[in-house]
Design a protein that fits this description.
The structure is a homodimer of 306-residue chains. With 306 residues, chain A is of the alpha+beta class. The first copy, chain A, contains eight helices and 13 strands. In chain A, the strands form two sheets. The first copy, chain A, has a nine-stranded mixed β-sheet. A four-stranded antiparallel β-sheet of chain A has the order 7-8-9-10. The longest helix of chain A is centred in the N-terminal third of the chain and has 20 residues, at 19-38. In chain A, 63% of the residues are buried. The interface between A and B is large, with 44 and 44 residues.
Chain lengths: 306, 306
């Protein structure tokens, strides 16, 4: 099997002055993940590496650069899933760690559980030797500005929901194993303790070697209502291509619950899709040593990976 | 539409001396929920009432009677879902409240979110005026005994996993709306902050007026791996009856990830099923003023509701 990786940096509205940073961030992440796949690494390692790269990049709403909750804090959710055995690990409402996706993988590999939350996740991180960092290290000036702006009495509560949320990656390795990973700071000015789709298996991501893998982004509560990731794979089980399955599921989410979002998909035969019902979604993919990426509908840049 | 309610009190092993209490608890819960439906109440109110009844009953692993985590504390998960609009509310890892299912409903109705966890859920409960109770009030002598027994060096870590987990209810009201509710104390001696299927939409429950509603019980991590509740409704969308869909999904969970469990299902035409791959599951249903209930495979007691 030829390896493939697809990543997204969030569906929503990307401001003009941040477009180049988003393009650069997703292509870097896709290339890092692809490099692992080319060396014979696993899909699981590739998606973890790609998501870690975007968690560390302040352009994205995950890890450093996460949006802030109502109290001005960063609280993050993340999930990783192995399509071979449906094993998965996730964390919700975690603070003061640099890479929630790495902690999610430790949950998968070092516990009998699949999701650890808040205080318990903190205890687990400590037991695993994951360093605690000051919460401020995850907060960018921009996140703080948007947070305080949303507290103003005349702010439009719907407006901030358009901020791109979530980063994610899906991959298939040369052994035909698929995996997905998703990580997010959630919704700007969310209630303390709000958990979104990204910690919730089937909503924020799903991976199954029998079908493929997907990672989702957009309005978390809408994606949870339709269990978006699992829905996409159902459609593929019924014979749809990744793009058809993605469009069908996104359209259903829009008509049934009024929610917008975006998804990346890879099938177990290596077909892929990056689709969104929002105005923009930053995405990138590498397949056959060819990098493709874009932000707007119809925008596809192609270049060779040497 | 004639109203129907189905409830479960957990799939797993029910000790002989607790069988009568389990039968009594599920029939009481089903009758309470049915009474609401007969008076023209909503499916949502009926499932909340039935689950509240079992949370208050120390025979079940939810609310009072919950099993204890590794630190000897009660941490609970719950979810409620409205099939009309796919709205849902859930809480995870909550402590010191009597009825997590009621808090889950408040999340659904009073916030723009779907899942609040741990510390944030506590703040929300306080803001909603939900009384905090001493954690000890939720702990029974039996829960404490089993917890300390599992800490002994020669305890069998697999043994306690057979304890029945989770209570749940599904219903259809006379307007044809379906709903589900699920509540649990989780796994005995679980890690602090472990969240199971019961807080996770699509795994612990799902309700959609276009298809039906289901609530699940059993080994939480296995149910999450296959997104069990959504899988059952997916099979029904493909034309299976509730019983066929339940058996197909439970069999898939057993063969694919080695997990056992049980489910209750009601279709949007009022057909129902209570199926399990464990040795036992306490369940009860009321339809056409007829109460049915049982614990073992093939055990069905029938009586008229006057």
């Amino acid at each position: 099997m030829k390896p493939v990786i697809v990543v997204h940096g969030g569906a929503g509205r990307i401001f003009k002055d941040r477009e180049e940073g988003a393009r650069s961030g997703v292509t870097t992440a896709a290339l890092k993940g692809y490099s692992i796949l080319k060396q014979g690494g696993s899909a699981l390692d590739a998606v973890e590496e790609a998501v870690t790269s975007m968690e560390d990049d302040p352009h994205f709403n995950a890890g450093c650069g996460s949006v802030l909750n109502e109290k001005g804090e960063v609280e993050m959710d993340a999930i990783i899933m192995d399509g071979k055995n449906l094993a998965s690990g996730a964390v919700s409402a975690v603070k003061c760690i640099a890479n929630p996706i790495k902690l999610a993988r430790l949950v998968m590999e070092k516990t009998e559980h699949m999701l650890l939350t808040d205080h318990g996740a903190k205890l687990f991180a400590k037991a695993m030797g994951v360093p605690e960092i000051p919460g401020e290290k995850l907060i960018t000036e921009r996140s703080r500005e948007r947070w305080s702006k949303n507290l103003e009495p005349d702010s439009n509560p719907q407006e901030f929901k358009k901020d791109p949320g979530t980063v994610g990656a899906v991959a298939i390795d040369n052994e035909g194993n698929v995996a997905c990973a998703t990580s997010t700071g959630g919704l700007t000015n969310k209630l303390v303790g709000r958990v979104g789709d990204s910690a919730c298996i089937g909503s924020g991501g799903y991976a199954d070697n029998h079908v493929g893998a997907t990672s989702t982004t957009g309005h978390g509560e809408s994606m949870m209502k339709v269990v978006l990731a699992r829905l996409i794979l159902y459609h593929m089980e019924q014979g749809m291509s990744p793009a058809e399955a993605a469009d069908t599921a996104l359209n259903y989410m829009k008509t049934r619950v009024g929610g917008l979002g975006g998804v990346i998909v890879v099938s177990n035969s290596g077909d892929w899709a990056a689709r969104f019902s929002t105005k923009q979604m930053s995405w990138a993919t590498v397949k056959d040593d060819q990098l493709q990426y874009g932000i707007y509908t119809g925008e596809i840049h192609t270049s060779s990976v040497c």
